[in-house]
């Protein structure tokens, strides 16, 4: 062999035999795994698409249901508004004692040529509440053709005598009705003021008078039937009892406490049979009485 002879070797598969797996087998396993993952991914995508279609169909069904309900509701409203069968036929008034049913109906002005749905309940209630005795009114519709007006009347608390006039007022000073001098005021306390009384339904604009009304509201329930008159004398509260006894409350403060002391004092005087002409509870801790025998001669 001369020079540099080149010897060609036959092709040999270095991975042939039992040395290990061949590249073709490994590739086949990888590809199988990839195909399995692709199949799973496709099933997931298909399921997602199914869920999306189901949700879309559900939303459509819900929308159809809502639209159907709206259409039915609109149809019912149209029936209520337009059918002559549901036009107002009756107006019911409840709770009115001092105000007559006729006066409530007149103030309400309920239209009779409309259906229940067209009744202006707020306007009617506001109109009824302009009546002197009405503190609150509630208007409701009752199928098939009735309008109900429920009235809550004001509560009278005192009789006001001011500028030559006499009237019954509630706890807010609203004039409920005018009275004549001969009127029987029952057990209501009479208070005196200086401002002219408004017409029934109006609020009495008298600072001193309103302070007296507030004092009446704070008196103990046991005292109210015994009091016939209540007045402010130089900003001091003075009451006159039915037996003529004068009670000095002092400043119109702590009326509840002073009233409780007066109740206990009257019970003690009655038990001992002591007659008095004047009681002073301006100091709740040290009340004073003036017996009849000590009344100075006039």
**Can you identify the CATH class of the largest domain?**
Alpha Beta
The figure for the number of domains is 3
CATH H-level superfamily title of the largest domain: Cell division protein FtsQ/DivIB
Low-confidence stretches: 1-21
Query: What is the molecular shape?
Result: elongated
Strand order across the largest sheet = 6-5-4-7-8-9-10-11-12
- The ordered H/E elements are HEHHEEEEEEHEEEHEE
Main sheet specs: 9 strands, mixed
The whole-angstrom Rg is 47 Å
**Range of helix content:** 25-40%
Q: Could you tell me how far the N terminus lies from the C terminus, measured between alpha carbons in angstroms?
A: 174 Å
Structural class: alpha/beta
Total strands? 12
Structure description:
This protein folds into three domains: 23-82; 85-153, Ubiquitin-like (UB roll); 156-294, Rossmann fold, CATH 3.40.50. 19% of the residues are buried. β2 and β3 form a beta hairpin. Helices cover 36% and strands 24% of the residues. It contains five helices and twelve strands. With 298 residues, it is an alpha/beta fold. The chain is elongated and about 135 Å long. The protein has helices at 23-82, 101-108, 121-128, 207-218, 255-272; strands at 90-94, 134-142, 146-153, 156-162, 165-170, 175-179, 189-193, 227-233, 236-241, 246-250, 276-280, 288-291. The longest helix has 60 residues, at 23-82. A nine-stranded mixed sheet has the order 6-5-4-7-8-9-10-11-12, covered by helices on one side. The protein has a three-stranded mixed sheet with strand order 1-3-2. α2 (101-108) packs across α3 (121-128).
